[in-house]
Structure formats: C-alpha cells, structure tokens
Amino acid sequence: MLLENKVALVTGAGQGIGRGAAIALAEEGADVVVADIKEAPLKETAVLVKGLGRRALPLRMDVTSADDVQTAVERILAEFHQLDILVNNAGVCKLNPVLDISLEDWDLTLDVNVKGLFLCCKMVAQQMISQGSGGTIVNIASNAGKVGFPSMADYNASKAAVINLTRWLAAELAPHGINVNAVCPGAVDTDMLLDCARWICDRSGEGDPHELVQTFAPEQLGRLIKPIEVGRVIAFLASDKATIIRGQSINVDGGSTPY
Ligand SMILES: NC(=O)c1ccc[n+]([C@@H]2O[C@H](COP(=O)([O-])OP(=O)(O)OC[C@H]3O[C@@H](n4cnc5c(N)ncnc54)[C@H](O)[C@@H]3O)[C@@H](O)[C@H]2O)c1
Question: Which CATH number describes the domain made up of 7-186+226-252?
Fold first, then answer.
C-alpha cells in the first residue's frame, strides 16, 4: 500500500470526486478526515472509509472560512497527532453567459475554488512545516483551467488560477519537503456535471439532463469518468512514488484535452 501510516484531509468529501478520493486514499492505507460544508453526506463517506479498515473523521468545514479551516486542523491534530496529505477538492460551478454573471456568483466561484483552496494550503502547509516531516498536497483543478468552456468564465478563471497556484506552491514549499501537484479532470459522473446538463436543458427548454450528460463523455474513453478513477490518480500523486512529479497539473480526462 502506498499511504500506510498517513493521515489525509479531503475537502468537499461528501460526494463526487471528493468521496472517490477519500476511498482511494483509504484503499492505499491512509486514515482520512472527510470535510464538507454539507454535513449529512459526510457520514456515508466516513462509513465507506471505515469499511476499508481505516479511521475516518467527518468534519463540517467551509473552506472559505479561516476559522473553520483552523478549527479543522486543530481537531485533526487532537485526534490523529499528524496531517500528511491535503486534497483540495471542494468546488462550485454555476453556468452563466459571461455578461450575465453576477458579482455574487463571481465572488462565490472565486472564493470557494481559489481562496478556499489557498486557505487550506496555507494552514495545512504551516502544520506540515511545524511537524518537520513534509507532506503532499493535491489540488483539483479542471480541464476548464486549460481550455475553458462556454458559460463558465468564472469557473474557467478559477481553475486556471489553481493551475498557476499549484506551480508556485510547489516551488515555494519544496524546501520544506512538501510536494504539490494538481489533477485536471474531464467529465466526471457527479452531481456537478449533472447540474450543468440541467442548466443547458432548462435554458433551451428541451432535452433530458440524464441523457445530455452522457454526451459529455470523453470521445476516446466512450463513457463518463468515475470519481474513483480520479481518486486513484490523486492517491498516487499523494504518495512518495510521485516525488519526481512537482507543480504539475495532470489531465485525468480520458484523452479529451490536447495539452
Ligand atoms: N465533475 C466534473 O466533471 C469535474 C471536472 C473537473 C473538475 N471538477 C472539480 O472537482 C471537484 C469536485 O467536483 P464534483 O464534480 O465532485 O462536485 P460535487 O458538486 O459533486 O461535489 C463538490 C463538493 O464540494 C462541497 N463544497 C462546496 N462548497 C464548499 C465549501 N465552501 N466548503 C467545503 N465544501 C464545499 C459540496 O458540498 C460538495 O460535497 C471540484 O473542485 C470541481 O470543480 C469536477
């Protein structure tokens, strides 16, 4: 196993890719702290982690709140006495043509996807540095941060910021033994993707979101990506096996992004 005796924090772990990451980390032997702004679904993720024989701690946490993140780090230390891995997965995506994006929507997207990720990196990296044993951070960016998609200007911008921030976090945290990378998923079968399909169907007044979402599948793969498949790449990047990969934003998109 790649992650025995490691303690991981996964944000946005109540569902989707965050839950997939929590399971994949547990499969590799890590104990997993599962955090989300929505408390109820966390219990199910924690049960799945415990079912793999690992310890799990569900924590309600809003990544945009410095107090929440600080309290979470303190709770983790009280329970596990260490924190080795951070997976910054919490994210939001709301579609709107660029001229219709309200300042409230812009702020929410940038607050959760960029400020929240930065806050978690900052506070967890401080802990990793004081532990003196290094650590790994895996950020969840998106192929939207590389190619961009229509009606997602705020989301595209936020994920491009994550890709750039990943590069500089890696450079500045390397002297402390902390390795930072990102993944750029393509179309993953989650509620977020289904909500995008719902928005398109509502706006055009036709189509079934469940059918439309299947058409987002990467052509080379021929199906949507599963959260656990992204999770397993995250688990690899979180391990010592990935030490030579640094500051990268790796496509996990079934071949849909050309670079
Ligand atoms: N689904 C895709 O196709 C896809 C593709 C590329 C990137 N991503 C990215 O992957 C990540 C997970 O996406 P998903 O598809 O699983 O989405 P999802 O909507 O299914 O899950 C996101 C989770 O984040 C949580 N969250 C939202 N705001 C939060 C906050 N302020 N604090 C803490 N938790 C918060 C939600 O409650 C939810 O549980 C996101 O960063 C998303 O941008 C998704």
Answer: 3.40.50.720
